Amino acid sequence: MEHSHGELIDHLEALGAAAVAFSGGADSTLLLALLRQRLGSKQVIALTAVTPYMVRQEIGDAVALTSKLDVRHELVEMPVPEGMEVNPTDRCYRCKRAMYTHLLTSAAEYGFDRLIDGSNRDDADEQRPGLRALRELGIRSPFIELGIDKAAVRQIAREMDLPTWHKPTNACLLTRIGFNVRFSMDQLQRIEEAERFLLELGYTWVRVRCHGDLARIEVAPVQRERLLTDAATVIEGVQRFGFRYVTMDLAGYQTGSMNE
To answer: Distance between terminal CA atoms of the chain?
Structure first.
C-alpha cells in the first residue's frame, strides 16, 4: 500500500504532539522527521532508552541524528529488566514492556501524554512479541496503522534525503546469544567490539553470533567470498576480543537466526 508524504503527515498531525521512541534506525528517524516537519520542534521529543545490552554506537548515532533534525532528545537509562538475566525466550516482550513503561513515564515528565513508535507493517507480519507489549501499553505505531512496510519507509526516507534510508536493521546484543543462556557484560562487549571491527573492515550487514568461545559470523551473501579472502585478518581480529574459534555461517546474514 502506497501513501504520499501528505497522507503520512496528515495522519501524524491528527495524532498531535508526541514523544517518539527513538532508536536512530530508519523507521524511527523517518517518524521523527515527519513529525518535526509537520508540527515543529516544540511539539515533538525523541526519547532513547539506554540499556546495558544496546550497541553503544547506536546511541551516539541517535544523538547525532536528533541534532541534525533539530529535535529535543533525551536518553532514558534503564537496567536489565527482571528475569532477563538468562536471555529467556520471551525476552523481547519483557524488554519492550519494561522499556516502554520507562519511556511513557519520561514522556509524561517532559510534558507529552502520547508516545509513538516506528514499527512498520513488516514487523506486524512477523513474530514480534515486543509488539504485544506496545499494544498493552497503548503505544501507537502510525506506520502499521497506515499499512506502510519497510520498503516504503526506506523509499520515503530516501526521498527526504534522510541518512538512515539504507541503514541496516539493528537489534539488541542479546539476539547474538542463544535463548536460556546466562550472559555477562563482558560477553556483550566482546560481541559489540567484534562487530565494530568487521564494520570498520567494510562489511555492511553483519552479525557475530556467540556460542561460548566460538564466534559465528554472518555477512551479506555478496560479501561471503570476501570474508573467506580476509580470513586470516578476521580470525586474528576477532580473537583479540576473547573468542577462541571463528567461523563463517554459509547461510549468510539472517535476522533472528538464533531464535531456532
So the answer is: 31
Contact indicator for 93, 133 with CB cutoff of 8 Å: yes
205, 196, 185, 190: which is closest to 249 by C-alpha?
Answer: 205
- HSE-CB of 201 using CA atoms within 13 angstroms: 23
**C-alpha span between 209 and 176 (Å, rounded):** 4
Containing domain of residue 69, as a range? 5-159
Residue that terminates a domain, selected from 134, 159, 184: 159
- For residues 70 and 41, the answer to whether their CB atoms sit within 8 Å is yes
pTM above 0.85, yes or no: yes
- Let me know: does 99 contact 52? Beta carbons within 8 Å: no
* pLDDT 10s digits, 6-30: 778 888 888 889 999 999 999 999 9
pLDDT digits (tens, 9 = 90+) for 235-245: 999 999 999 99
